[in-house]
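Researcher: Hi, I'm a grad student and pretty new to this. My advisor asked me to get structures for two proteins we've been looking at. I'm not sure of the right format, so I'll just paste the first sequence and hope you can take it from there.
Model: That works fine. Here's the first sequence with its structure tokens right after it:
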Amino acid sequence: MSNYQQLDAWIDQHFDEEVRFLQALVQVPTDTPPGNNAPHAERTAELLQGFGFEAEKHAVPEAEVRDYGMESITNLIVRRPYGSGGRTIALNAHGDVVPPGEGWTHDPYGAEIVDGKMYGRATAVSKSDFASFTFAVRALEAVAKPAKGAVELHFTYDEEFGGELGPGWLLKKGLTKPDLMIAAGFSYEVVTAHNGCLQMEVTVHGKMAHAAVPHTGVDALQGAVHILNALYKQNTAYQQITSRVEGIKHPYLNVGRIEGGTNTNVVPGKVVFKLDRRMIPEENPVDVEADIRRVIAEAAAAKSGITVEIKRLLLANSMKPLAGNAPLVSAIQRHGEALFGQPMPAMGTPLYTDVRLYGEAGIPGVIYGAGPRTVLESHAKRADERLDLEDLRRATKVIARALSDLLA
């Protein structure tokens, strides 16, 4: 039996255990916001201890976390050294997730299995890769027994807010400096590039008044509508800006939250909305932000008495392929094609992730893990998020085989 077949067989033999591990992780909520993620890290560390994996707990100071808009973050590093020389390969997945929202037909934290699929928030993105990465490393150590290099598991809790207190914090503190890294992803493609993301909060000020005498006030909502129309109009222009990266099309602007006013019979004096601008890898984030600010300022100026405040919430750079990622790409493509029975394209994704922070630190990486062909199929960030357990099984095998090659 070949080394690869032995790895596959070990994963098959322990797959029920891997599924139970994932269920236990899904059953501890990590809704962000509010972002109280330390309890999940504690539970993960406890479960890893059962496999003989010692997880270092790196708690981000409470004041720093609260200033950032979350409640608690404890990032985990599991270091598995095999011998001098060779590469150190990090495997990163994030535990924080958006709240479930409405419309679920399964318990968002039940981790129920129906027709070979596990349902629950974070089953696909990205607690599934806590499981795939952990069990790939367990298989590697049981079968391949590498004699050099090292693997690190990075289980972090700040992806939804941008990653600065997740991987960014571990890298900034000098707690890790791997040679290569694989981050949580989906099973049918290896991602080498992704979009950037700019998020901004816009506060539109008018002047409150009684609705019976509206002329005594300045309607902030009408001002906001005028600004929003100007912003949405940009999406038509963005369609003319196309990316050369396969899998990424064009920029897009979305307004995801809006609030304002005090009562039905009051002219609203203040409206706040939050926008999300996806940037293709070819765009310059500084220019993008300046242009958005210009559009908002010009639209506001057209409405007498309206003033605006603009606050940047997040600026996540795009991920661009680093030349050193070739060994990762080729290993995952080779084993992905063998195990999934179809070509494994290397491409970009319109998502943004915290993987860019490794790239900015000069660490070549790719995105690959357990999940369906598309975000849409996974129901990530929607009701009834789910994971096909056969994708989990095969992705775990792909990662174990790739690690075996890279550490050989």
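Researcher: Oh nice, that was easy. Here's the second one.
Model: And its structure:
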Amino acid sequence: MGDHVVTAAVPAGLPAGADDLSVWPASTTRLPDGDLAVGGVSLSELADRFDTPAYVLDEAEVRGRCRTYRDAFPDTDVLYAAKAFLSRAMVRWVREEGLGLDVCSAGELELAVTSGFPAERVVLHGNAKSPRDLEAALRLGVGRIVIDGPSEIARIAAAVGPGGRQKVMVRVVPGISAGGHDKIRTGTDDQKFGLSLADGSAQHAIARILGQPLLKLTGLHCHIGSQITEVKPYLVALRRMVGLMARVHDAHGVALPELDLGGGHGIAYRPGEPVLDLTALARRLRAGLIESCAAAGLPVPRLAVEPGRAVAGPAGVALYRVLAVKRTGEKVFVAVDGGMSDNPRPALYGVRYAPRLIGRRSTAEPRTATVVGRHCEAGDILAADAELPGDVRPGDLLAVPVAGAYQLSMASGYNLVGRPPVIAVHEGTATTLMRRETLDDFRSRDIGG
């Protein structure tokens, strides 16, 4: 795999997943009774105190991952992708660690700004920005708006108003297929995002923007997919984007000063899975950018990257209590008190997790089980082919690592179960970031009776 793919480490002498904490937060420790502690707090105690299901988020892990990006990309704008997970505390941690923010709606933008995040360090995305999205962006002074289609050019220019000038970028589709599943590959011409490089749409939009006095084109943007574990697709995208910058320079005499290569940096959900090597990515992107710009006779633009999952995902742990164990033919189903309402990702694109029994020691031989949710849906599966002790029983606690991204942010009100709380842990202290959603919350929205 060369120097661009690494795998989550497995301790010597252990089969992958047997007792491996490589995909857990760095603060995770084993306790004598079979429990685990994260951020200095027992997971079983958290389950007893806050009930289940619940999300645990390790503040130190979030901050540490922000710093890893800052260290790996010292001359690059690192923008945290808010869609992965956003809360007021997350906004503060990201701001204090020196990252910018990438948002996709007025809701994400206003939460960030009202939580103290500077609007000029925010980039607004979206393939279908609503009037409210654009109004909020212009009112609050968002740093960049990424234009995703030709109709947005006139809409944004008309909304800027006299005397104003909004900085914009153009999202380009570079024609690259990369990512862990069809539904998260966004660099090809057959999906909804961006303007095509191949058919000339991107070039045409750039020419139109350059003719708009109320818009200032600062650079180009692309995002080729998610869960990418190799550097090569990013290098191909880089070369194609610099090629377009060269054509813009030749046609219009403009050297664009910024290039945003998006995110999609792959992480491991289970021990032994490949992860993207950030050090190699940063080194080879910088070298490739300098080389490509020199060949094209361009000044080197400032790079930006947009990690979301790679910052939040490994910092989260989901806690569930077992409600039922059922044997059907050769299969064992372990049903828990959450499911697709708090984590739709397995149903959407087949994500695989490694749940672990916590809170008691078991000497039973492991067996393969399917961990399922409580919802009225056959696709409500949290973890297929999970290795759990053979004596797992109702009342047991299961903890699922790498639960910090695209779970609560994609949660729903299905079956009116209610979304779980988010509990931050740090140096032995637990703090509620988001409370549990209750039946009263549903009733207060239901005003038609």
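Researcher: Is there anything I should tell my advisor about the second?
Model: You could mention this: Residues 1-5, 10-18, 183-187 have pLDDT under 50 and may be disordered.
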